[in-house]
Write a structure and sequence with these properties.
Layout (H helix, E strand, L loop, with lengths): L6 H17 L6 E4 L4 H4 L7 E4 L5 H17 L4 E3 L5 H9 L4 E5 L10 E3 L10 H6 L23 H13 L7 E6 L11 H14 L3 E6 L5 H15 L7 E2 L6 H10 L2 E5 L2 H6 L6 E4 L5 H4 L9 E4 L20 H4 L3 H12 L5
Length: 352
Amino acid sequence: MVRLRQIGDVVFTTPALAALRRRFSTASITYLVEPAAAPVLAGNPHIDELVVVPTATGLAGVRALWGLIRRLRTQRFDLAIDFHGGPRASLITWLSGAPRRIGYDVAGRAWMYTERVKRPRALRPRHSVENQWDLLIPLSIAPPNPTADPVFMAVDEVSRRTVADRLASAGVEPSAQLVVIHVSAGNPFRRWPIPAFAEVAASLVATNPARRILITSGPSERDAAAAVIEAARERLGPSTAAQVLACGEFSLSELRALTENAALYIGGDSGPMHVAATSKVPIVTLYGPTLPARSAPWRPATLPAEALEVLGLPCRPCEQRVCVPGDFRCLMWIRPDQVVAAAERALGHPSR
């Protein structure tokens, strides 16, 4: 299996990975992934070997790539499936030496596969798990459903202990209602304003003083997380400001462990949200240029998930290269009070 690049897209392949294991119970399965998304697959019981593809560029990158190809060819794979379809993934699949190679029918690279699956260019309102599952059709594997084939990420025990220690150090009691708000975004099209996040955090504390709000972000948006914490605390005042927590950064593995302790996760349509979806935590997702139909949490419908989106915009969904109206209205028009209401519904769901 080859799936490079995005964290969320790698999460979306985990149902297919489980299906491949059911179909080929005695096979040796190797998964190729880039470093950023490797934690998603660490400890997955369906993988025999996890290969982290080097991301170096220039001459060092060429050497590393050819070293990888030589390694793959010595393993004499019978089947290679390219879940990515990009130039490098296609090349790796072709040069792996596998006599049977399944990939998307993409222009300029389809010849690298022995079996090709149609992939429409348009942004269809169809879930990404199903789009990637199409590559299993040549293997006579039945279509997926979220209940039988949910996304999966193992909880690392070291991360579990680390998170527990950090929460205890922050004064979070086991009985506290912990709400995780992830403020990072992959690009400006998915970046909700800092004041809006702060208003949501403060409102959730004001409604229930037993809550603890943990603000998280990726490494590149530490300043945004700090600004949300500061603004939320200013709204609350001295008596409850400390209930908005500053616990530093969490790795992807730690974020997965964190969701085991959380009563709710709030964030945009991003890799961390899909990591959260591998747990049972209720989720509130803010969708801007993307569609819930394509990237809603893929798991049983009995687990609470609220999708907030601005309907009726002719420019949505988009390729996230140019905002035609210029004001990112697909995301900016989502109001904090809508997010708070969705959060309260999720927190009050009977499954909780």
